[in-house]
Amino acid sequence: MKIRISELANHLDENVKINGWVYNIRSIGKIWFLILRDGSGYLQCVTVKNDVDDEVFKLEETLTQESSVSVFGKIRKEPRSVGGVELSVCNIIVHQLSNEYPISKKDHGTDFLMTNRHLWLRSKKQNAILKIRHQVIKATRDFYDNNGFILVDSPILTANSVEGTSTLFELDYFDRSAYLTQSGQLYGESSAMAFGNIYVFGPTFRAEKSKTRRHLTEFWMVEPEMAFCDLEQNMDWAEKHVEYVVRHCLEHCRNELETLERDIKKLENITLPFPRITYDDAVEILKNNNVDFEYGSDFGATDETIISNQYQKPVMVHRWPAESKAFYMKRDPKNLNLALGVDMIAPEGYGEIIGGGQREDDYEVLADRIKEHNLPIEHFKWYLDLRKFGSVPHSGFGLGIERTVAWISGTKHIRETIPYPRTMYRLEP
Length: 429
Known about the structure:
Number of helices: 13
Structural class: alpha+beta
Oligomer: single chain
Largest sheet: 9 strands, mixed
Radius of gyration: 26 Å
Number of strands: 17
């Protein structure tokens, strides 16, 4: 019977067939051990000379790392082995002998590993990170699906910017210019007026000439948008979403977190409610830590780290200087110099993982803002229509999948949180 390594605990004392790749080999006299991986886990396969044909036993001399094989034998309980089971080998079929696999157990440089990303994904730690990514995405979709949200896809090709024209990837679109989307937000707002509560999930693109460990030119975001929703309710949704994802990963990614040597206790502290502070409060924290910070500016990586170090949970910074936020952000009616925006900063120095806020719902105000920002109003006529036909208070946010995965997994560089990262200098593999 053909089964996956992750399922073997349910097949004790049964004869099975496992397909996979050679991870490692070691021998002790008339016994040799094959560590097999199949993408779901690792399995120790014990080959005893008297239990197999000579040609099977001699495979120890020819099998190489990442050779593809099918291993046949009986599963038995072994608490000392990974997964708590091992396989007593009766036969091995070799599909292909791997020839000089380039990634060995020695240390390799980052550029080498990124050039061989298609192979590096097979390593234990990279495997663990991307399995956590899978669960972050699954938990996210489950959270919104279970709370009555509708998934509505937004286009990747757009005629307008969302986050500013300086970070747009422009391309020829027949006889006009088009851009890779920076965010699905504007289309999410439109969809929220049709369905109430929706979420957009897909890739987004920023032409930022950044070389930091927190930035990619292509990354994935989930963007919920809620009709009849103000800033406070928006923050409620944001913290519930993040807590749900962390709880889910603690339940379903324990082995992966241990492989990465993640401090699980820090994740167990992520419970509601999260601290909420104003932008002014955050600036005061920086001043108290002797940071020379210009009021009205966005927070840099060092600033975010200092702010987050005051808390053991993600902190939400809200009510920002209006000039620092996008044209669509609604002003605080109590202080028109402030925008009803919110950023969520992850603890442990992982930076902003959520950006959002309440949207401007007044037609005239929004039209004036578009003009003030020197944006081509003809590209936003459809967006303004939302304020003409049944406008309501509405809010939303975007959560970056890669930054969230980096934080939960304890990975220092964002390039390891996506299968094939795109940066200023990398378009391949």
